[in-house]
Amino acid sequence: METYKRLLLNNKAWVQDKMELREDFFTRTSGVQKPEFLWIGCSDSRVPAEEVTGVVPGELFVHRNIANLVVHTDFNMLSVVQYAVEVLEVKHVIVCGHYGCGGVRAAMSRQHLGLINKWLRHIKDIYRLHSSELDTMPDENARYARLIELNVVEQVNHLAELSFVQLAWKRSKRPTLHGWIYDMNTGYLKQIAKIDPDNVPHDIFMYEFPKELMGDG
Ligand SMILES: [Zn+2]
């Protein structure tokens, strides 16, 4: 059997399982979605967002890219975040990185990888931003793990710097921004950053909005 056919067979079995659980498993969420969480994770196949958080379809709005980056010129990611914040009105946005991230590993090297150099240079910028800490770490694996953590912290900061996140904070005191790390060796998630609507980013990133954009809240 060709390997991809296994996926289609799995799907049939999965539908049966869910229908046995409850008959309206699919129909109850097929009309509308109202997820409370936006997940921005790595594309890595070993970090399945729904599985590690134990949620069911309808609970998690998901965006994934290499090394879970929030890049201010990435219209794909920005559109996902804006839709999640303004239309779905999510309460929490989670950036989840993971130890052993190949994207971060590649960014730490000087290897030429073609187009992907452009993507990974955003991580190199984070290395440069934190080089005073990272360069004092003689152990390469410790430095690698720390850059994975710092990358998540900085991506959460990037979210806080978005005008539509700040506008949602002013209008409705949400979303809370979270930075988590998934440990592939243990399966556990670890919280490493949290930004509430009251903890604003550096002044230079804080937008002043005209009154008509502020709404009632
Ligand atoms: Zn990764």
Quickly list its features:
single chain; binds zinc ion; 5 strands; five-stranded mixed beta sheet
The shape, in one word, is globular
Please outline the major beta sheet. Answer: 5 strands, mixed
> Quick one: how many beta strands?
5
- Regions with pLDDT < 50 over 5+ consecutive residues? none
Give helix % range: 40-55%
Rg is 19 Å
Q: Spell out which ligands are present.
A: zinc ion
Report the end-to-end length measured between terminal Cα atoms. Answer: 58 Å
Largest sheet, order of strands side by side? 2-1-3-4-5
Order of helices and strands: HHEHEHEHHHHHEEH
Mean pLDDT: 95
Structural class: alpha/beta
Q: Count of helices?
A: 10
> β content, as a range?
15-25%
Describe this structure in words.
The protein has 217 residues and is α/β, with parallel strands linked by helices. The chain is 47% helix and 15% strand. The chain is built from ten helices and five strands; from the N terminus they run H-H-E-H-E-H-E-H-H-H-H-H-E-E-H. It has a five-stranded mixed β-sheet. A hairpin with a 6-residue loop joins strand 4 (176-182) and strand 5 (189-195). Helix 5 packs across helix 6 (116-129). The chain is globular, with a radius of gyration of 19 Å. 26% of the residues are buried. The model has no long low-confidence stretch (mean pLDDT 95). The structure holds zinc ion. Residues 42, 44, 67, 98, 101-103 line the site of zinc ion (ZN).
Give a quick precis of the structure.
With 217 residues, this protein is α/β, with parallel strands linked by helices. The chain has helices at residues 3-21, 27-30, 49-53, 75-87, 102-108, 116-129, 131-134, 140-160, 163-172, 211-214, and strands at residues 37-42, 60-65, 92-98, 176-182, 189-195.
